[in-house]
Automatic annotation (TrEMBL):
It is found in: Cell membrane. Residues 12-244 form the ABC transporter domain. The lineage of its organism: Bacteria, Bacillati, Bacillota, Clostridia, Lachnospirales. Belongs to the ABC transporter superfamily. This is Energy-coupling factor ABC transporter ATP-binding protein.
Length: 270
């Protein structure tokens, strides 16, 4: 129901953001948007600037121009360490963030690092491993696991920190149907709790199933930003950003029920 839905207001305010790497060409050009507690998918072709944008939100990169405000405060004055307990970030490649030799140690590392006591950290870690369906692998070496499982370990290690914001870079890569269901369930759970989920995705079926807001990026700029219904119904945007329509939408169109797709989706919002 509407009453249970979070309405946390703005979480990030991004104003006239510009970025380039060293003396390279601009990667983000005058990006202005705000992010609230709706689950938000960022889509667009490779090289559009999606990862760069979310790294800036995590404080891993600093703007070349413009500003990012988090929770009403300018991020310019904050270090990555100050944001560690606030903004969780799951890298595209789990091997960029996994470095312990036991799954449980790996998942406990973040919580311990932000000051949780050992017992609490372990409880959080075990809960997070359960949520991603890997509780039986707690004693394994992460390097012995498959890529899809390492990605779930990486997700668990960020979930265990219980941050207000969760950024996911390509969470569904290498996941089968079950993994996608698990990740989708986590996104829904976090959104219900008023957390902000921001994810970069290439899988439009997954986007249209789990994300209420879609931001389309192209060449360092925001090409479209709105509800999934609004964005997926804009043919020119999909073509320009070379985005595939979700398959359910294609099917409805093929059957001549184009409107049915959107009614179906709108029905879920009520
Ligand atoms: P996306 O996530 O949409 O694929 P990225 O943010 O990864 O886009 O990349 C945007 C642009 O920035 C690309 O042209 C990419 O080559 C460039 N880029 C990304 N990371 C670096 C880096 N560390 N150094 C220099 N250029 C980079």
């Amino acid at each position: 129901t509407k009453g249970q839905e979070a309405c946390g207001g703005e979480v990030f305010q991004i104003g006239h953001l510009n970025f380039r790497y060293q003396e390279g060409t601009p990667v983000l050009r005058d990006v202005t948007l705000s992010l609230d507690s709706r689950s938000t998918a960022i889509v667009g072709q490779n090289g559009a600037g999606k990862t760069t944008l979310v790294k800036l939100l995590k404080g891993l990169l600093k703007p070349v121009g413009g500003s990012i405000w988090y929770g009403g405060e300018d991020m310019a004055g904050k270090t990555v360490a100050m944001l560690a307990g606030e903004v969780g970030y799951v890298f595209q490649n789990p091997d960029d963030q996994i470095f312990k030799y036991h799954v449980l140690d790996e998942v406990m590392f973040g919580p311990l690092n932000i000051g949780m006591k050992k017992e609490e950290a372990e409880r959080h870690a075990r809960e997070a491993l359960k949520e991603v369906g890997l509780e039986n692998l707690a004693a394994e070496n992460p390097y012995d696991l498959e890529l899809s499982e390492r990605k779930l370990v990486a997700i668990a290690s960020v979930l265990a920190m219980d941050t207000r914001v969760l950024i996911l870079d390509e969470p569904t890569i290498a996941q089968d149907w079950k993994g996608r269901q698990i990740i989708g369930g986590i996104i829904q759970r976090l959104e219900k709790q008023g957390r902000t989920v921001v994810a970069i995705l290439h899988d439009m079926d997954f986007v249209s199933e789990y994300f209420r807001r879609v931001i389309v990026m192209a060449r360092g700029q925001v090409l479209a930003d709105g509800t999934r219904e609004a964005v997926f119904s804009r043919k020119e945007v999909l073509e320009k950003a070379r985005i595939e329509e979700p398959s359910l939408m294609k099917l409805c169109k093929m059957l001549g029920y184009e409107k049915a797709y959107f009614q179906l989706k709108e029905g879920e919002e009520v």
